[in-house]
Amino acid sequence: MPVQRSRGRVAKVPPASGVCFDALKYLETAGVGRRETIYRKGQTIFSQGDKCKSVLYLQRGAVKLTILSSQGKEAVIALLGPDEFFGEGCIAGQPLRIATAVTVEPSSILEIDKDEMIRVIHEEADFSDRFVAHMLRRNVRVEEDLADQLFNSSEKRLARTLLLIARYGKTEQPEKIVAKVSQETLAKMIGTTRSRVSFFMNKFRRLGYIKYNGSLEINSSLLRVMLRD
Fold first, then answer.
1. What pTM was estimated for this model as a whole?
2. Which of 35, 131, 177, 228 is a Cys-bridge partner for 216, taking CB atoms 3.0 to 4.6 Å apart?
3. Phi/psi zone of residue 45: left (φ > 0), alpha (ψ -120 to 50 degrees), beta?
């Protein structure tokens, strides 16, 4: 079972006190209407079809979102990293979860009740700006994912996925992927077979674009695959 840590209630400070709302602190602490939970690797946070009653914020770790079709076919729709929201459909009237969320490494997650999420969006401009920025980035990502599926080869889709997982462009150097992402998961993310993923991963390694050394390290030179005609 997940281990929950409660840090007591956080009193709301009246505006007259001169103390500004700190969105980052709010997202890093438990309080009224929000709970911090530690998950082990491979634990299910919520399942497709569960009641949708809260928004979740990934403080640390990594989470995989999957959907299952009525024919039993599974697809990986996202691999989330720190500082990302998910399950936000509840505040748009979504009654049930449309995906399953599973940790791919030990993770710390803040669960924010629907009513509390709506309150803080309406009352705290700093938080609202942060959440809106997240939703805009998510929308751009969905559009890019669709274009990627429609127009790019499986090799380019794999290269793009690896760069995204390594947070290319968000840091000065692409990160080592600490979480072990299986080739099967990568195949489900880009819509191809595991054998094709294995072929391209070996090719990328021969060309020096990636390295295996206990963890997977992505070299920024992998971007060449995306730029190639």
1. 0.78
2. 177
3. alpha
- H-type alpha helices, the chain: 23-28, 114-123, 125-151, 154-165, 183-190, 194-206, 223-227
Q: Any bridge partners for residue 103, and if so which? A: 63
Angle between helices 154-165 and 125-151 (to 10 degrees): 160
pLDDT of residue 29: 94
Nearest to 177 by CA among 210, 151, 204: 210
- Give the DSSP H or E segment for 107: strand 100-113
CB count within 10 Å of CB 71 equals: 5
| CATH class name, domain 153-227 | mainly alpha
At 78, is the secondary structure helix, strand, or coil? strand
Q: DSSP assignment of 136-195, as one string?
A: HHHHHHHHHHHHHHHHS-HHHHHHHHHHHHTTBTTBSSPPEE-S---HHHHHHHHTS-HH
Q: Which residue has the higher pLDDT, 5 or 146?
A: 146
What kind of fold does domain 3-149 have according to CATH?
A: Jelly Rolls (2.60.120)
In this predicted structure, the answer to whether residue 210 has a pLDDT above a threshold of 70 is yes
Tell me what the mean pLDDT of segment 72-81 comes to. Answer: 90
Measured CA to CA, the distance from residue 160 to residue 149 in angstroms comes to 11
Domain ranges of the chain: 3-149, 153-227
Pairing of strands 74-80, 54-68: antiparallel
Is 45 strand, coil or helix? strand
